[in-house]
Write a structure and sequence with these properties.
The chain is built from 8 helices and no strands. With about 280 residues, it is mainly α. The relative contact order is 0.11.
């Protein structure tokens, strides 16, 4: 009987101990869960606060981007739509001509050294037609000059030289095509801006005369038109001037290449004549 009582008491103690341990673990886990939840909520709050801080910043950036575009449109309209439209047309036509020249000059550039080496290799074998085919199948002014020289290779070195020089002048003129129009638009853009300035000043004096008073509100409208048109005209001229100088640098490089290639071609033809026409 004592053994049974002791067994029951032991089982009761073990059960109570297990229950207490489970309850303690559950309380600990509940506390941990609450702490994690609090940490997560704090993290979420901090992220939300950061997003709230970033959102206005991004909104401000978007507003600034849209504001710049909107400001340009507003200033364009405020600068008298007639004169601002003329400045915009000058910029469009000027940029179109600049892009056309840049594409043309870029396609005119070739590896002239390799071309002359191929011509020399063909002439060393006496293959004049092969040399002509090489020149004919190659694009650019240098190849065209070489082809003109090869067409008169049997007429003497003097005839070849005159032909190369004459055709080189033609090719140089082709390279400089439309540059005068670009300079026209470069000069026209600030001139239109200055014309708008003068008209804006006249408008300001007209407003003063009508109001009979010199006040900032009366003068501001005409002065704004004057300054905005001048600014846009100068900006357009600067943009076109940068493109124009770049085009001139490419034209000068191609002219130098044509001159060097012409001299090298005459040397190649002279060696061919000495070798095959003794």
């Amino acid at each position: 009987m004592k053994k049974v009582f002791a067994f029951v008491a032991m089982m009761g103690l073990l059960t109570f101990g297990v229950n207490q341990t489970i309850n303690a673990q559950e309380e600990t886990e509940a506390i941990d869960i609450e702490e994690v939840a609090q940490e997560d909520s704090a993290a979420v709050d901090s992220i939300a606060a950061a997003e709230d801080v970033e959102a206005p910043a991004e909104a401000e950036e978007e507003e600034e981007g849209q504001g710049l575009h909107k400001t340009i449109k507003v200033k364009f309209i405020e600068g008298s739509a007639g004169f601002m439209a003329l400045v915009a047309i000058a910029m469009i036509f000027g940029l179109a001509l600049c892009i056309e020249r840049i594409i043309f000059l870029s396609l005119s550039e070739i590896n002239s050294k390799k071309l002359l080496e191929d011509i020399q290799a063909a002439l060393e074998n006496g293959d004049v037609e092969g040399a002509k085919a090489i020149c004919r199948d190659t694009r650019g002014p240098v190849a065209s000059i070489c082809y003109q020289g090869m067409l008169r290779i049997d007429e003497g070195l003097d005839v070849v030289e005159r032909s190369v020089v004459s055709y080189g002048s033609v090719q140089a003129s082709n390279l400089e095509k439309n540059l005068s129009w670009i300079t026209l638009f470069i000069a026209m853009s600030p001139s239109l801006g200055f014309l708008g300035t003068v008209i804006g000043m006249v408008q300001a004096f007209d407003d003063i005369q009508k109001a009979g008073d010199i006040s900032p509100n009366v003068v501001a409208g005409g002065m704004k038109v004057a300054l905005i048109t001048t600014i846009f005209g100068i900006i357009v001229a600067l943009i076109l001037q940068v493109f124009y100088n770049y085009i001139l640098s490419k034209v000068e490089a191609l002219n130098t290449d044509m001159e060097d290639s012409s001299v090298s071609l005459l040397d190649i033809i002279m060696k061919y004549n000495l070798k095959f026409k003794k």
